[in-house]
């Protein structure tokens, strides 16, 4: 009898690492990735891998594969992930340590192994090599159906596949998690990170700080801090990138001078903003953001709660689990995100080796994962407090995913939410409007007062409201200028001219995307109009009923 494969959704670092580990242990598997290729979109620049991740690589990668991976990393990495130097942004001089003596540091000062600083794209390419036949790109996951003997995975753009287990390795916006944990909420750390890299050209090196050139460095710039690391690659390996400085700027969304729509700004505007914020920095540091070879992108930093839910307890979906950011998104301030994802992959393979391809293996992994992931999340909080004043987890705002709102609407927008609206685009949409969760909540649900005003009756005067669910109020709100024109207009703008639009390489693709977005919105408008007419008819009957009562003789 043929053994059904383990199905992995997502070809990020965690998914590909687990694929390699399964390959080493001869467990059948297949990876499905929505992107058309490994390089279809930018996914950050540099990542660090610490003890637990290195140990997993050493155990589960063939020796030659590990040596190749190690040789592709930064050649001058220090023996710790704590910055070698802390510089004053205004003077360029060495200043105090990041953590005061005796303070709790999220990073162990004496790791077992020298950390690996890897270019993310190079690392993923290394992890893909040797298993290309087991990875399919351009397949968009839709949903799963769990069965007694296996699991069926459904795709939006292809036939179903059968597997023994399903592993959601599809990142912070995991669609696997949306079905497994429909009420799950991410936390907004309130940090906005600007990631970038500046190539180490001769001209740049002549201006760049000598202290910062020597390794991992933190720049203190008042409310703006910058962490950087020069990345030097083995010149004997032709496929490796040119040397560059990786840097990340930590900002708070509520800091003075930070625009509310920073997440949807194009790269050139972000570059101008950063140059303005660093205008008083010492020239040897400000030059990071001034060269024409600088690339940058902005990201909202999301986090899971350290109280990771036990999705296996009493669940009907017993053959599904999550790894990496899908299971425990965390701030990069402890440099443990990639390490924890790789550790997840190794723990599942360990459990499969002991328990077999069955739900018990997943429950064993999850029990261990919740403990060590909690530790990593708590360390990320310590680093977050130091880098951008991160508040305690219980005080952070929740980011309610669009699909959760759709489900609360009793199916009215379920189909649109599943097929036409990506949760990350909704996130950009909300950021663009600078009203966060409130706007999209009002757009869909509306408010009692707006609903009453829209059809011109009082609650006490109409039986209509007692029979109408919250969906109806959302429809009336969408008829107002604020609800319909602003919400729909901003959504189209965010969808076409925001991050997704900037990734499109041709005018034709942009036009096609605009058409699709418009058609989707027109469909919603038609549905809204139909419900509005029904509401108007009900309201008219109610008014006539009350007018009739008033016109009766006493």
TrEMBL record:
Its cofactor is FAD. One of its GO terms (molecular function) is monooxygenase activity. Residues 318-378 form the FAD-binding domain. Pfam families: FAD_binding_3. Keywords: FAD, Flavoprotein, Monooxygenase, Oxidoreductase. Gene3D superfamilies: FAD/NAD(P)-binding domain (3.50.50.60). PANTHER family: FAD-BINDING DOMAIN-CONTAINING PROTEIN, MONOOXYGENASE, FAD-BINDING. This is FAD NAD(P)-binding domain-containing protein.
């Amino acid at each position: 009898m043929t053994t059904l494969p383990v199905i992995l959704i997502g070809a990020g670092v965690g998914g590909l690492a687990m694929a390699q580990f399964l390959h080493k242990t001869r467990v059948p598997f297949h990876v499905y990735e929505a992107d058309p290729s490994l390089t279809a979109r930018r996914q950050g620049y540099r990542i660090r891998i610490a003890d637990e991740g290195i140990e997993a690589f050493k155990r589960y990668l063939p020796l030659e594969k590990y040596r190749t991976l190690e040789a592709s990393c930064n050649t001058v990495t220090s023996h710790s992930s704590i910055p070698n130097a802390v510089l004053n942004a205004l003077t360029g001089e060495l200043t105090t340590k990041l953590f005061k003596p005796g303070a709790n540091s999220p990073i162990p000062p004496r790791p077992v192994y020298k950390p690996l600083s890897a270019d993310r794209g190079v690392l993923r390419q290394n992890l893909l090599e040797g298993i290309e036949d087991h990875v399919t790109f351009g397949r968009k996951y839709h949903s799963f159906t769990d069965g007694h003997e296996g699991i069926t995975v459904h795709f939006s753009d292809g036939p179903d596949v059968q597997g023994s287990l399903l592993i959601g390795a599809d990142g912070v916006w995991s669609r696997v998690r949306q079905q497994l944990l429909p009420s799950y909420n991410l936390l907004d750390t309130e940090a906005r990170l600007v990631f970038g890299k500046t190539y180490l050209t001769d001209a740049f090196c002549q201006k760049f700080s000598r202290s910062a050139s020597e390794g991992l460095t933190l720049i203190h710039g008042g409310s703006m801090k910058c962490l950087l690391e020069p990345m030097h690659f083995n010149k004997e390996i032709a496929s490796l990138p040119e040397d560059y400085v990786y840097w990340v700027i930590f900002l708070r969304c509520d800091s003075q001078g930070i625009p509310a729509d920073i997440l949807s700004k194009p790269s050139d505007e972000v570059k101008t903003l950063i140059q303005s914020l660093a205008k008083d920095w010492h020239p040897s540091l400000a030059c990071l953001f001034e060269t024409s070879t600088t690339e940058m992108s902005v990201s909202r930093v999301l986090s899971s709660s350290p109280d990771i839910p036990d999705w296996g307890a009493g669940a009907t979906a017993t053959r599904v689990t999550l790894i990496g950011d899908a299971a425990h998104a965390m701030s990069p301030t402890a440099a443990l995100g990639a390490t924890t994802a790789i550790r997840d992959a190794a723990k599942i393979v360990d459990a499969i080796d002991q328990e077999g391809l069955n739900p018990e293996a997943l429950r064993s992994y999850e029990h261990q994962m919740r403990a060590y992931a909690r530790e990593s999340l708590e360390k990320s909080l310590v680093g977050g407090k130091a880098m951008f004043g991160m508040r305690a987890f219980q005080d952070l705002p929740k980011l309610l995913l669009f699909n959760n709102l759709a489900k609360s609407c009793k199916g009215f927008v379920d189909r649109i939410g599943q097929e036409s609206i990506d949760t990350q685009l909704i996130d950009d949409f909300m950021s663009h409007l600078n009203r966060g969760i409130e706007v999209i909540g009002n757009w869909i649900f509306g408010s009692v007062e707006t609903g009453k005003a829209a059809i011109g009756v009082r609650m006490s005067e109409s039986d209509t409201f007692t029979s109408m669910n919250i969906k109806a109020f959302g429809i009336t709100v969408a008829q107002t200028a604020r609800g319909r024109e602003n919400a729909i207009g901003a959504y189209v703008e965010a969808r076409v001219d925001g991050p997704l639009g900037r990734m499109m390489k041709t005018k034709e693709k942009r036009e096609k995307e605009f058409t699709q977005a418009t058609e989707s919105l027109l469909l919603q408008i038609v549905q809204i109009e139909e419900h509005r007419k029904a509401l108007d008819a009900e309201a008219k009957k109610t008014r006539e009923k009350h007018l009739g009562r008033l016109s009766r003789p006493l």
